[in-house]
Amino acid sequence: MDTKHTAAIVSSRNWDDLRQALDGCAQVRTLPALDALKALPANECPDLALIDFDDVRETLNGSPLARNPGTCIVFVSERNEPDAMRLAMRYGARDFLARPIDPRHIEEILNRASGSLRAAPAPASEPSQARDTQTFTFFTTKGGAGKSTLLANMAFALASERPDTRVCLLDLDLQFGDLAMIFDAHPRATIVDAISGGGQPDQAASCLTQIRENISLLASPAKPEEAELIKSHHIEALLRGLQGQFDYILIDTAPSFHDVSLAALDRSQKVFLIVTPIILSVKNLKRVLDVMTNSLGYENDRIEIIMNRSDSKFGITRAEIEKLCKRKVNYQIPSDGNLLVQTVNAGAPAVCVSPRNKYSLAVTDMARALCGAPEPAPRRRGLLSLFGKRTAK
Prior knowledge:
- This protein is of the alpha/beta class and 393 residues long.
- It has 2 domains: 6-118, 3-Layer(aba) Sandwich (Rossmann fold); 134-371, 3-Layer(aba) Sandwich (Rossmann fold), CATH 3.40.50.
- Helix content is 37%, strand content 17%.
- The strands form 2 sheets. An 8-stranded mixed β-sheet has the order 8-9-7-10-6-11-12-13, sandwiched between helices.
- The longest helix is centred in the C-terminal third of the chain and has 17 residues, at 279-295.
- It is elongated.
């Protein structure tokens, strides 16, 4: 944020650490109670309101916390309690900060609040242009096929094609989702919090974890047992709410035809089936294709096949897979196990860490094909390559 922004600390106590963090970033005022914030005229409402959750928890009654819907609400608490965090999110908080306060968390909140202010809706006289969202779901019937890692790298590849591209990842592997871990992210809210508001756009947006400036994640539940709370109608509402806010929504699914997965598949423009060069994977691919084309009635051109670990020296070839499944393999992604293990452990996608690696290049080529980007210019070869290898005398 810059100094043209305004912030209010709403608390009966002193929050000197918050005031110091905001110093130089915004014009700060202190308000003793939530009623004082609500009483402000619309033209005096702050851009950012840091509200003492422990002060106001008992007085929350469902009414707006500020007269200006553009005010970014952040709750602050002495305790890091999941129930308190969820309740805060239900009341429209964009974030939740618990003591002891880590300066890095304060900086993260300030950056995200600043981003939300920059991305605030334009005035009615200047309507913002809704994005033509494309929804892609990645599916496989077995774990260990590299689906989640591929999806994470695809998000970065798509987001890098144009500076204004916005990508949202939705982790629907509800019991054992890996996307937050792959990004080394620590979500303060998950899909459980997002559905508490009925999947409304503002509620869903407040529960997103920012991975990069133009990449967001709606994480899977923090506890496996919370998966039972998510139903197919929640997914349909979430996807409707996110529609128009992003260029691409990439959905990771559990390896089963659960009603939640089916809700995502039904609303996807493309379904990507991951196959690896082993006979069990190919057998399951044939079954999935049969279900999708015959039972679910999906059009053939809506389904595309990705052969992961395509350069394996052992196993079934691409030609054999195509013959067995009577379908074209649309994309081949070679393997680089050492690189992927290192990047997943580091929480950084391979396309960022090693963009010229064969895995990264294949993912980037697929991203270009999906977004219709032109083919890049051929890579220039070094002078030594013009003369070939020198032979020993």
